[in-house]
Amino acid sequence: MTADVEAIATGPGALERFLARAAKSAARRAWLPLAGILTLLGLWWLGGVLIAANPDTTSFAGFAPVPALAALTDILLGGGLWDMAGPSLSRIGFGLAWAAAVGIPIGVAVGRYAAFRRASHTPFQFLRMISPLAWMPIAVLAFATWDAAIVFLIAAAAIWPIIFATANGLRRIDPQWLKVARNLGGHEIQVLRHVVFPAIAQDMLTGIRLALGVAWIVLVPAEYLGVTSGLGYSINDARDTLEYDRLAAIVVLIGAIGFLLDGLCVLAIKRVNWRRAD
Amino acid sequence: MGASIAFEGVSHRFERRGIPVLAEVGGQVAPGETVALIGRSGCGKSTLLHILAGLIRPSAGVVRIDGRPVTGPSSKWNLMFQQPSLYPWMTAAENAALGLTFAGARRGKAETARRTLGLVGLEDEADANVQTLSGGQQQRVALARSLATEPDVLLLDEPFSSLDAFTRAALQDEVVRVTGRLGLTVLLVTHDIEEAAVMADRVLVMGDRPGRIRAELPISLPRPRDRGSPAVLAVRNTIMRQFETSLCLRAA
Ligand SMILES: Nc1ncnc2c1ncn2[C@@H]1O[C@H](COP(=O)(O)OP(=O)(O)OP(=O)(O)O)[C@@H](O)[C@H]1O
Ligand SMILES: [Mg+2]
Prior knowledge:
By secondary structure, chain A is mainly alpha-helical. Chain A has 11 helices and no strands. Chain B folds into 2 domains: 5-76 and 151-251, Rossmann fold; 90-150, no CATH class. Chain B is globular.
């Protein structure tokens, strides 16, 4: 910082030199990510050109970046964003909350009690491998509303990473921490609250981050059915009305919102991380 | 103030049909007394200390602290381990206050923790991330954590053995000073004959397979003691000889 101030303070042209240096270092840091984004846009544009050039597919030309980004601007400026994403986010929120409420205690039990771990290993690995969407017919029968069925499907997808990450965190806890806590007169619940949960907060949030990833993927196909709101429904709706530019815009939105939510998780994980790098 | 420790007929084996680790161990520590327990590696010193602290239930025998049988951990006595095992997500003061948190204290917790850190010379590090402290400072925080609930009895399981010689000597003096001032009863397990000679009123020599008290040696020198003084060196030699004789006696 002081070096920067000196650079500004020393004579004519120093400010310009300083700004040029700052711009150059920012550009150096930004150019690789920027190149990645531009490549993606370029491929998208190329795809659009190929679709437009092929007489069989010209009617899908709305998928190209220019019309899609125009439709995206319409959605963002027209206020349609919240109508579309709000219901989806609420389903994701409830699904993740259920998954965490059920998955964290199970994860603690798996990590803490060897007998439970051995007993549950095979059933859990078996259940985990079943695509949550395979539960769809059962979910529809079991729940009164489509909304509840979708929340169930999301929770069914999200629970596994939460269970396994929690259990993993627990098994990496220094046993000495538990002994010291017991020795200081801590009861089981106090030890959980003051030692175990802070110790594994990062692992639990990492589990929730992974859970969010799969939940976000399951959400869209789950919303294809029954409900008349949300991002998945909107995609289907745009297909039925042949609004391919709008469809592509929603695809972009799904990616962007997922990216943002993941970023929030990363921030939360950074906040609870107590491990020092050195 | 210190409390008495009395244990009798303490036997322990870890598995139902495993080899006995302790056999009929008995002894007493008077209120305010500091007793050192020495013995070869694996003879069962840590096991005995865990039993005294209520962290392990012995296969047989009773332990009484202040006349009441020990059935589990309590804030009235505390076992301090070789490694500080601090909680890295807590500051030094929060670490020191954990026992008070468990005891349900609300008001005055932070002040007590700070005062206890002051007792071990760490008032300036109260808000420090414990991962930035040196090994000696971390062990001081662990000592403050053990002292914050104002226990009557301090059980020490080789608490200085992971420290360098200078830090170790400084901490030995620190513990002598603090426990003397608070009048605590101390039972110290150590591998270090000098440590026993500098800190203890009495030395118990433990034999192995199974663990048993073989000999007892009073040290009637006032504290604090000077490590280099002829009296302390003489005590060291006496402990060493006693240690060897006890083990030879067993071989004979
Ligand atoms: N949890 C346990 N399960 C089974 N055996 C154990 C357990 N803890 C200790 N032992 C055994 O009991 C014996 C005494 O162990 P202990 O840790 O009490 O020895 P120690 O005297 O403290 O040794 P050191 O001086 O090396 O610390 C050893 O033979 C050890 O292998
Ligand atoms: Mg030991």
